[in-house]
């Protein structure tokens, strides 16, 4: 290894150079004036010349001292940052999960404490997302996992690798006293709701269920959760996935007169194809599969 200067003297030099005074440096470092002076003198002798010169009542750097300070400052800063990182311990793996607001608020967030309990070393950031024309709003570089339960809106884009985590089940829901009724020409309702991003959901559900609900008006809401709340308020019929309304059904806010049609593997986690998944990603998918079956 190349011969190094006396490392223990470098803090004394740096403080004196920054403060312009041995007395001030000694006070900052918690040492005596004599001890700091001796360290600077020893360092100067090792480097072959004076590092400071007197200027009035203070000190200024000599050309040799200026060279040392310019090299030493960045090194000490980098060393301080490394030390602080080591004191704090290793960084926690970060999972960025893109998920629709309705699914996040009505199903996922209530279960996340169980994931944290099993994986306390992983940190999760939720990105409010969704599918628009079958494509995620975020690019693959912005998230690690895109959660998609709404298979009625078609497949995800080719840049994503879908990993099934459970079945999905879809059906119409409404308030208990809403006039969704079966007549001579089939099922009728005054109003049906859809939401932005899923205009074809009703048509796909009718195809897989072989049931048609006739209504004079189909009103689109900007978010799925608003369509569900409007249905609970007795304003119409919304089409949804069973997990999103489980609590509403239990509480009697909503009913599902026609039940739910199950789509195998309809709930999945989609991963960007442009990079391999990290260990935390695979752990989350495994946990999610267990939660989806519960």
Structure commentary:
Keywords: DNA-binding, Transcription, Transcription regulation. The chain is of the alpha/beta class and 294 residues long. It has three domains: 7-88, Arc Repressor Mutant, subunit A (Orthogonal Bundle); 94-168 and 264-293, Periplasmic binding protein-like II (D-Maltodextrin-Binding Protein, domain 2); 170-261, Periplasmic binding protein-like II (D-Maltodextrin-Binding Protein, domain 2). The protein is 39% helix and 26% strand. The chain has nine helices and 15 strands. The strands form four sheets. Strands 4-3-7-15-8-14-11-13 form an eight-stranded mixed β-sheet, sandwiched between helices. A three-stranded mixed β-sheet has the order 9-10-12, with no helix packed on it. Strands 1-2 form a two-stranded antiparallel ribbon. Helix 1 crosses helix 2, helix 1 (10-19) crosses helix 4 and helix 2 (22-29) crosses helix 3 (33-47). The model is unreliable at 131-136 (pLDDT under 50).
Please outline the helices and strands:
Blueprint: H1 10-19, H2 22-29, H3 33-47, E1 52-55, E2 58-61, H4 63-88, E3 94-99, H5 101-118, E4 123-128, E5 131-132, E6 135-136, E7 145-148, E8 160-173, E9 181-183, E10 186-188, E11 192-195, H6 201-209, E12 213-214, E13 218-221, H7 224-232, E14 237-241, H8 246-251, E15 261-272, H9 279-293
Parallel strand pairs: 3-4, 3-7, 10-12, 11-13, 11-14
Antiparallel strand pairs: 1-2, 5-6, 7-15, 8-14, 8-15, 9-10
Helix pairs in contact: 1-2, 1-4, 2-3
Counting helices, strands and paired strands, the structural category is alpha/beta
In the sheet with the most strands, the strands line up as: 4-3-7-15-8-14-11-13
Q: H/E series, N to C?
A: HHHEEHEHEEEEEEEEHEEHEHEH
Poorly predicted ranges (pLDDT <50, ≥5 residues)? 131-136
Query: Roughly what fraction of the amino acids lie in strands?
Result: 25-35%
The CATH architecture of the largest domain comes to 3-Layer(aba) Sandwich
Overall pLDDT score: 86
Put simply, the count of helices is 9
Q: How many separate domains make up the residues?
A: 3
CATH class (first level) name of the largest domain: Alpha Beta
Largest sheet: 8 strands, mixed
CATH topology of the largest domain: D-Maltodextrin-Binding Protein, domain 2
Count of strand segments:
15
Taking all Cα atoms into account, the compactness measure Rg is 33 Å
Amount of helix: 25-40%
Termini separation comes to 61 Å
Shape: rod-shaped
At the fourth level of CATH, the homologous superfamily of the largest domain is Periplasmic binding protein-like II
């Amino acid at each position: 290894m190349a011969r190094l200067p006396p490392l223990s003297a470098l803090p004394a030099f740096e403080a004196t150079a920054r403060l312009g005074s041995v007395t001030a440096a000694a006070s900052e470092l918690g040492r005596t004036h004599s001890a700091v002076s001796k360290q600077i003198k020893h360092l100067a002798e090792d480097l072959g010349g004076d590092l400071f010169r007197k200027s009035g009542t203070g000190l200024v750097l000599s050309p040799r001292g200026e060279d040392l300070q310019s090299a030493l400052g960045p090194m000490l800063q980098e060393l301080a940052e490394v030390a602080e990182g080591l004191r704090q311990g290793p960084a926690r793996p970060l999972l960025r999960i893109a998920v629709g607001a309705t699914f996040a608020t009505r199903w996922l967030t209530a279960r996340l404490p169980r994931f944290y309990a099993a994986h306390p070393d992983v940190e999760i950031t939720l990105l409010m997302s969704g599918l628009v024309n079958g494509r995620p709003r975020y690019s693959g570089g912005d998230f690690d996992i895109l959660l998609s339960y709404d298979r009625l809106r078609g497949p995800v884009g080719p840049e994503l690798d879908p990993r099934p985590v459970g079945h999905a089940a879809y059906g119409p829901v409404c308030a208990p006293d809403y006039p969704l009724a079966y007549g001579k020409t089939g099922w009728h309702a005054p109003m049906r709701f859809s939401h932005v991003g899923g205009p074809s959901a009703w048509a796909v559900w009718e195809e897989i269920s072989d049931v048609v609900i006739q209504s004079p008006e189909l009103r689109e809401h900007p978010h799925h959760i608003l369509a569900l709340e409007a249905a609970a308020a007795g304003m119409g019929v919304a089409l949804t996935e069973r997990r999103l309304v489980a609590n509403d059904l239990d509480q009697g806010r909503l009913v599902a007169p026609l039940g739910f049609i199950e789509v195998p593997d309809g709930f999945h986690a989609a991963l960007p194809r442009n990079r391999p998944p990290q260990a935390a990603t695979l752990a989350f998918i495994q946990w999610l599969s267990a939660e989806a079956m519960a």
